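$ run holo --ligand "DGJ" --emit tokens
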Amino acid sequence: MRLAGAADHGMPPARLVHLRSSSSSVVLDVGSGVPCILHWGAALAADIDLDAFAAAFERPIANGELDVVGPLALVPEHGSGFAGRPGLIGSRPDGTAWSPRFVIGEWHAVIATGAEPGLDGDSLQCTAVDSVAKLTLTTDVHLEPTGVLTITCTLSNDGDTAYRLSALTVSLALPAAATELLTFTGRHTRELHPQRRPFDTGALVAENRRGRTSHEHLPFILAGVGGFGEWQGEVWSAHLAWSGNHTIVAECLADGRRYLQLGELLHDGEIALAPGASYATPRVVATYAANGMTAASQSLHRHLRARSTHPHRARPVLLNTWEAVYFDHDTDRLKALADAAASVGIERFVLDDGWFGARRNDRAGLGDWWVSPDVYPDGLAPLIAHVRSLGMEFGIWVEPEMVNPESDLFRAHPEWALVTAGYEPVLGRYQLVLDLANPAAYEHVFAQLDALLRDHDIAYVKWDMNRDHAQASGADGRAGTHAQTLALYRMLDELNARHPDVEIESCSSGGARIDHEILQRTVRVWTSDCNDALERQTIQRGASLLIPPELMGAHIGPTISHTTGRRHALAFRAITALFGHLGVEWNLLDATAAERDALRDVIAVHKRLRPLLHGGDVVRFDVPGGNGAAGFGSVPSPAIHAHGVYAPDRSEAVVAVVQLRTADSLTPPPLRLPGLDPDRRYRIELVPIAGQGRLGSARRQPAWLRDGIDLTGAQLAAHGLQLPVMHPETAILLHLTT
Ligand code: DGJ
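-- output --
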């Protein structure tokens, strides 16, 4: 059904639009100007009486308030009496038009009729105009069948002077029941750590000015009812699909209303819209789940898996050379490493940093994307041919957005650096950012990458980005992060179009560029430079909320972790890395024959389970400890992590149980597995991994560990399966079949 309207600007009629998916409903009022969310939550009947529903939302006006209730619109307006953070902040050169107030213009909605939501989802597009400020605001709202809600807003300047835009953000009104917030913070080698806090009066503001998605403020926020967990409690989540600067706000107003607000962070003067020009926000990707975070992440995973660019061929197990050799490149040694890799079942060999220009350490060479004759006198061809002859694909590392002052490129074109003229630039890892919005710089870098891919048999590119922006000005002296981010996207898009068989990974000092927009043009994110399995448990659990396992790089490192010095058994490292796009980052030339044999078995297990791991529904479980600590952000942190993947038809499942620290009680609790087919009988068996030894100090462990056990889905949900006593930093893998 197509609804359309053009309101009388004097007396805007209330216009209610009901978007539906099978798991949620969004009711919007488009009558008063910019659309307002009246309801975003539980699915409502298709034929609900919307006027009566909306009447139930009418707010009283308390003493001390304005005579209107300032609408909490998708772009709320100070000018309409909204007391929170306006969605649009900007002005004209003379200071006017700083507080726009829009009225509804053209709008139309495409809504499936009938009891079942439509195949393409429901959508709404609204144009609102402010004829005084001479601005037009278009909002696009789409509720997908996956349950994911996407929103973008576009501001157009209809005036005859420039409009200086400081912020255009999307606000999502939430019900009063959302009383807790969950965000993810981190740093290099410790990404994606959960932070849970009350959502009460006041605002949480997270601002990222690093010019990349960032380690410390993943642009993702969840709000939920008190104590929301993996399988219980209403949860609303919102992600900003953007790889540059961003702002995320969660505010609870004095009148009790609350909202999440997400958008690009713009530096002062960064966007000045010329007459006729427009600015579009990054997409906000949001979900509602009636019963916890596992359902929320399943929607987000389905959303990503529905993209036409989603990788559908099996994710090749890779070996990455970084922690194996760092900058110490030598063709013969790399060939020997490739031999070892192939012998354990590796499918892709990725040559990391150090192969080009003067790149013998991290002080030089970035920008010179030609093969170093010092290290590779015969070029890369012999190594690539060797790798290919072993049946593996060849991948290569690049960091195209960067330049070292110590490089041919910088010596020839110092003016291409993204710096502010007249100041000593701030270096990061001895490097500067290259201004890719400068067409000449862009063409130069693009031509080098294009030639690299054209002249070599390369199937995979690890695209890295290792420094923050600081005083990043474009050629015109204006802040340049916005233009740089768009130029990055353009370059990735053009490379993908020119080399459609090459897959690109997004890396940024580990996990500083994990977002859905970079994933529009890449097939994998590097989750963290920390390969310590204990740390990885938390990092990957956080990442699993936003992205599915096949997009999440997870490597088995050496016995002693390079970043933490911890020592872990191969079984623990393997069970941790199995739940991602598996890789190995370990100098296998140092591994013993027994270790290589065990690694070969692990890789074989991964390949056997890969269709399930990379195509099933990710599940996480809250395992209560003696003190109640269970899930994301609980204090103290959980002692046990349990998570897995269920086959979409529930015929099979794989579940990992991980003992992170010493348990709170002498014996752990049973593990409940909700969400399986209640009527089916599951055979549960321990998957032997890498010669896994003694699990824990117990005189007797449950017999199912040895014999397996048969239980129905209903039993597993209601009571669960008694866990064994386990030592800290051990894990077990369970396979459920029907
Ligand atoms: C940072 C990345 O995260 C690492 O994996 C590695 O590629 C280095 N850069 C190389 O400089």
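-- notes --
The CA atoms of residues 403 and 410 lie 7 Å apart.
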